[in-house]
What we know:
Elements: H1 9-12, E1 13-17, E2 22-24, E3 32-33, H2 36-41, H3 50-60, H4 66-77, E4 102-106, E5 114-115, H5 124-133, E6 136-138, E7 141-144, H6 148-155, H7 166-177, E8 183-187, H8 197-202, E9 208-213, H9 219-228, E10 234-239, H10 244-250, E11 251-252, H11 256-269, E12 273-279, H12 281-284, H13 287-294, E13 299-304, H14 318-327, H15 335-343, H16 350-367, H17 376-381
Parallel strand pairs: 1-4, 4-8, 8-9, 9-10, 10-12, 12-13
Antiparallel strand pairs: 1-2, 2-3, 5-11, 6-7
Helix pairs in contact: 9-11
Amino acid sequence: MCMDYYCTAKFxxxxxxxxxxxxxxxxxxxxxxxxxxxxxxxxxRLFHTDxxxxxxRLMLDNKSCTSxxxxxxxxxxQGLPSKRQQHINSTRITDPQSPLTDLVISxxxxxxxxxxxxxxxxxxxxxxxxxxxGEYRLDGVPVIQNDNWSxxxxxxxxxxxxTESRFFELLxxxxxxxxxxxxxxxxxxxxxxxxxxxxxxxxxxxxxxxxVTGLGVNKQRLRQVLQITKGMDISFDISAETTGxxxxxxxxxxxxxxxxDRVSMIExxxxxxxxxxxxxxxxxxxxxxxxxxxxxKHEIYINTLDDPACMMPHIxxxxxxxxxxxxxxxxxxLPEFNTILTMIKKTPEDKDRINMGDYLKQFSSRRSISLDxxxxxxxxxxxxxx
Length: 386
């Protein structure tokens, strides 16, 4: 297959998963674990490991690099959209040693929500689910399970694994040395729950700061964070894409009314808000209503979902697709809806349909959730009883 393998994000972005010491050279890349002795001996090179430099050289030679295959290339080869395609029109960079401009830090996996398209790598609630109920299996194969690190991390208290860690101190030093760094994004889990968020913010002054949150916190904690960040250049990227009961299914652990209240608090505090809408097959069913609720006041960014594979947007029955197309007819020229229309075009395979039904059944039964509110034709298409 003839492809242009280049991606600007590989030359500008870095995501750091603090608790597991993992580095993702762009959000979809396969990670590498940082060697602390190496980093201590090579300050300023967190963004220029040997692996990262080699990957960039391969891209400049228009060759596939392994770390990008599982997150982008393999989907493009199937005619599906990928995150990489969002950077195609970006300015081309030719220097493998280009400076880091955009840093993403995942503080910890501590989170009180089990969003349907998340997993134990990013949520402690998911870790507890697997410990209590076992792995999720589709086609007889484990697809969501805890690794040894997740099991260990779930047993440790936040106080004993915070910013005093050796890696965290080295990371703060890397931020200090990164003179070209323009923006820092803070992730979790749920970063607003993290006890060391306040300390982190003390080290990032002068940079543009984004906090990516599902707003799974109580009003008191959110009010405290808003008071601390008053006057700082901090915006909130809020994860959401549907409304009502469908929102509460996809983002299990959050209530729609509480979510709306938290959004209002941030609006009243004067912080900029952008919604990150991860489009799955389920969120296609309710995205139009979410758009109608928030698009007039805030930007909505469409995020591409690729895991779990059974929730990809095209894995929908024809009636659901046609209903979305008809309902949003007047919005088809808008980029958000045009992107979704492209996503749902592909015809799902029968195994995808069966896996979606199995996943819905496992997820809902563990939480005693009724699926009666979902469209009857979609439920029956998935092989579940209406």
